[in-house]
Specification:
- About 70% of the residues lie in helices and about 0% in strands.
- By secondary structure, it is mainly alpha-helical.
- The protein starts with 10 loop residues before the first helix and ends in a 16-residue tail after the last helix.
């Protein structure tokens, strides 16, 4: 029979227990943003190239959510803006999961299941709310892009967001509703 030990609630306790993971909320969110943003943009670049497109134009397409069609005549600067917007969205997604997981402990205890579900929710929100309300507007449905989008959001967005949140030893918001912070 194995016994389950509780995760350390302090950075000192985590270090003493040999715990591996981000030690602060800032570190967790920045690491999660880097992982999620890089996985998602890599997927987008690969899909774009396989479909015969150019990565710069794809990045300008992200910026077109803010600038409209003018982004496609902005050269490298609008491509960089698109990359910045992409990582800002990744930051927002990771931060949202992190903060909510501090209020709802099961999100930290079962990161695989909840992370995959979160990725699906992010995909739905991005495609049914954010993109239609942006300057991009409605996008034509494509089954291959839908399947790819769901998979990358499950395993490249939701899952890493949840795993980073679950592995953080910072006690930021990490108390049960029945407990009071020290």
């Amino acid at each position: 029979m194995t016994t389950r030990t509780r995760r350390p609630r302090s950075a000192e306790g985590a270090k003493a227990a040999g715990y591996i993971g981000p030690r602060s909320s800032t570190e967790a969110i920045l690491l999660g943003t880097l992982i999620v943003g890089t996985l998602d943009i890599t997927d987008a670049i690969v899909v774009t190239v396989l479909r015969g497109g150019k990565p710069v134009r794809m990045l300008q397409g992200i910026a077109s959510g803010l600038l409209g069609r003018a982004s496609f005549s902005g050269g490298p600067s609008t491509a960089l803006l698109g990359l910045g917007i992409h990582f800002f969205i990744a930051f927002s997604v990771v931060t949202t999961y992190y903060v909510v997981s501090r209020q709802i402990p099961p999100l930290r205890r079962r990161p695989v299941a909840y992370g995959i579900a979160y990725g699906i929710l992010v995909y739905i929100f991005m495609n049914l709310v954010v993109i239609p309300l942006s300057a991009i507007g409605a996008v034509r449905f494509s089954l291959p892009l839908f399947v790819n989008g769901i998979l990358i959001h499950m395993f490249g967005v939701g899952l890493p967001s949840a795993l980073v949140a679950a592995r953080t030893s910072d006690p930021f918001f990490a108390f049960d509703s029945s407990e009071t912070p020290a």
